[in-house]
Amino acid sequence: MDKREPPEDEGDRTLENAVLFGLFVVLVAAGIWLLGTMADIRKVQDCAAQGRRNCATIDVPERAR
C-alpha cells in the first residue's frame, strides 16, 4: 500500500511564513536595541573608570519659541 501525506495547504504555509518573519523582525529589533543600550552603558562606565564626575547624560528640554 502506498500511503501518501496530504498536500499542505498553501494558506497555512503563508501564515506560518508571516508569523516567522514577524518573530525574526522582533528579534532583530530587540538585538539592535540591546546593543545600543550596552554601548551607552559602556561609555558611562569608561568615563567613571577614568575618575570623571560628569559622566551622566543630561537631557535638556527644547525651548518654546
Task: Describe it.
The longest helix is centred in the middle third of the chain and has 40 residues, at 10-49. By secondary structure, this protein is an all-alpha fold. It has one helix and no strands.
Write a brief structural summary.
With 65 residues, the chain is mainly alpha-helical. It has one helix at 10-49. Helices cover 62% and strands 0% of the residues.
Instruction: For the record, give the distance between the C-alpha atoms at the N and C termini, rounded to a whole number.
Output: 83 Å
Q: What overall form do the CA principal axes indicate?
A: elongated
Instruction: Estimate percent helicity.
Output: 55-70%
Tally of strands: 0
Mean pLDDT: 86
Please identify the structural class as seen in this structure.
Answer: mainly alpha
Proportion of residues in extended strands = under 5%
- Total of DSSP H or I helical runs spanning 4+ residues: 1
Question: What does the largest sheet look like?
Answer: none
Name the helix and strand elements from N-terminus to C-terminus, one letter apiece: H
Enumerate the spans where pLDDT stays under 50 for 5 or more consecutive residues.
Answer: none
What is the CA-based Rg, rounded? Answer: 25 Å
Oligomer: single chain
